[in-house]
Specification:
Structural class: mainly alpha
Largest sheet: none
Number of strands: 0
Number of helices: 8
């Protein structure tokens, strides 16, 4: 459920970009981000960097489109979103609070969160998402400057980057547990 809530704004934005205007797409994505923030708050969880930052990115792009440049092309909007997500992800690591840490702390026992490699693992996972955002931005940038390339090439890079990051996010914690071991008391079902 958590991964669905994290990716819902981006999925909605991507789908809406195919069927409606960029302005509607980014404002809808911003609203969904705000809804995920509201769900977290209603359930007593912390406000997360990613949805709050994404709400701001989507809203800023929407305001730019609505007030300053409604002719910004689809690739320009996609590039802006990808750069915004890259900045949020990289910024969270530079601020020493990788965005995945907030989700991880809420989904594991306190003993696991206190383990020495826990923070490092979250840096690695956030780094994977940062790399994915950078790859998606680069693919859109290439399409802007090499207009002869087919649009599907950018979509293929985005699909591969996002799905690789999702897979890595699921795989890496299991890999660390196997490689470094986890005390039985730190496992969620070890009672």
């Amino acid at each position: 459920m958590t991964i669905f809530l994290i990716l819902a704004p981006y999925g909605a934005y991507t789908f809406l970009m195919l069927v409606t205007s960029a302005t509607v797409s980014v404002f809808a994505a911003s609203a969904i981000c705000l809804a995920t923030v509201a769900i977290d708050v209603a359930q007593g969880r912390s406000v997360k960097i990613l949805p709050a930052g994404s709400a701001i990115v989507f809203a800023a792009i929407g305001l730019y489109l609505a007030l300053l440049d409604p002719t910004l092309g689809t690739l320009g909007v996609k590039l802006s979103v990808d750069v915004g997500i890259f900045v949020i992800s990289l910024g969270s690591m530079l601020a020493r609070r990788p965005f995945t840490l907030q989700y991880a702390v809420e989904s594991v026992p306190a003993e696991t969160a206190a383990m020495p490699g826990f923070l490092y693992a979250n840096y690695v996972i956030t780094g994977a998402w940062t790399a994915a955002a950078l790859l998606m931005a680069a693919a859109n940038l290439v399409l802007l400057y090499v207009p002869g390339l087919p649009l599907w090439s950018s979509l293929a890079v985005a699909f591969a980057a996002r799905n690789s990051a999702i897979y890595f996010t699921k795989w890496y914690p299991e890999y660390r547990q196997i490689k470094y071991g986890t005390p039985a008391a730190a496992l969620p079902n070890a009672r």
